[in-house]
Amino acid sequence: MSVLAESNPADLEALWDRYGEKPDYQVVLGPEIGLLLVQGRVGGRGRRFHVGEVTVTRCNVRISGGAVGTAMVLGCRPRQAEIAAVLDAALQDDRRRPDLLESVVRPLERRLKEARRREAVRVAATQVDFSTMVRGE
Amino acid sequence: MYVAAKGGEKAIGNAHRFLAERRRGDIRLPEVSVEQIREQLGLAVDRVMAEGSLYDRDLAALAVKQAQGDLVEAAFLLRAYRTTLPRFSPCPVLDTGRMRPLRRISAAYKDLPGGQVLGPTYDYSHRLLDFSLMEAQAAANVVYLVDKVGTLPSRMPRLTEILDSDGLVETPEPERDDEAAVPDITREPLEFPASRSARLQALARGDEGFLLGLAYSAQRGFGFQGHPFVGEIRMGYVPLEVEFPDESLKVRIGWILVTECVMLSRAVEAGACECGFVQGYGLVFGANERKAMAVALVDRALRSRELGEEVRYPAQDEEYVLRHCDNVESSGFVQHLKLPHYVDFQAELVHVRRVGKESEGGIDEGSSLAGSGQEGR
């Protein structure tokens, strides 16, 4: 579910388009755009305070067969929320699950992992390697 | 007191058309896209998200484009837009301890666990204009200087956790009751004295320039004694986890870029806190480091009252700071002066002319009314 929410919407859409046996579905809720009021903690650990609001899009669907799928994604992304909800429902079906994981979820997951890896390497490259200096007199 | 004036619909319509043309600029040049702004002017987008108090990079980039780069105007656009959206109920809490960092430094401790990680900082640039940026550059592979290959530890403990064990830094006040209402200044009016939570919410969305000036004033003695230290600055992506009610599981739906700053300074009044160091804290949306530092300094200055320090200067004055740090509010009131004040001004003119005549006429100020025949001109 995180993978679907965090993926680039264009990637998700492309992989979904290519997936052959899309289930029939009915949208039960949304997709609707709204706000989440996000909190931080004082000092990172103490009392909570509101930092601000984040846009999200949520959607619930029911696919033929009855399974209900739910999704929430960051940003104003109705299409992504809808696809993610349908996938969430379809993934509950043990027969569809392996194929869906293989053709949609895993490729997206690999892409996310690769992006994280690239970022981590760059961040690590900026770690300071202090050489001990002898204080001059 | 402004008055309503009618007429001017055509002028306004034309003003908007004129504005749109000026916004577009030279039509021989390609129009800048919202995606380009989002990607390539990320720090402008970050500032607009912070002051608009709305985390959405696409909307912020659109606002920057629409406002022709005027970031205060863009923040206003975001604030207005958020009022059109409903709030969903779960209130996720950001745990900055689980940040995927881009940058993490401490000025206080050289060798903290996880080390000093510079990230994509401008701090060491020489501030010379780079004319190579005047030409679009073909996307080339950037080659990094590597002397060792490694990754950072997955968890970087906070400096304050380390100092904690020596009892040197105050433990942030825990919440007494977990569901106790966290104040929301966008729903309830800000009252004084304000809670720390209300202050930090106000400061997070406050104008960077105003807060920077106040922070500077505090450092120069108008609010601090002694020298504050950057305990830690972290900038990176924090997971946003949402609870799905029917399934009672927490799902991460994405990552929010934030900057967090902890400032440490000595408690001035002995006995104000049982330990040596008092914290100032700042947490803002986006890569707004200067802002996060200013917020942490102002937070510290605003704690003077509760720490038993004498409150003498603006940076320590809660009402002064919190009432005036919101640039949408400040801009509104300052700019309202442009609204027609014609009738009032006529009254001013009459008054000013009358006072002028009276002072020209009488030689003896005290008997100016008695000698009113003497308009000696």
From TrEMBL, chain A:
Superkingdom in the source lineage: Bacteria
One protein family per Pfam: PhnG
GO BP terms, alphabetized: organic phosphonate metabolic process; organic phosphonate transport
InterPro entries named among the record's database cross-references: Phosphonate_metab_PhnG
NCBIfam families found in the cross-reference section: PhnG_redo
The protein, known as: Alpha-D-ribose 1-methylphosphonate 5-triphosphate synthase subunit PhnG
UniProtKB/TrEMBL annotation, chain B:
InterPro entries reported in the protein's UniProt record: PhnI
GO BP: organic phosphonate metabolic process
Protein name: Alpha-D-ribose 1-methylphosphonate 5-triphosphate synthase subunit PhnI
UniProt source species: Desulfacinum infernum DSM 9756
Lineage: Bacteria, Pseudomonadati, Thermodesulfobacteriota, Syntrophobacteria, Syntrophobacterales
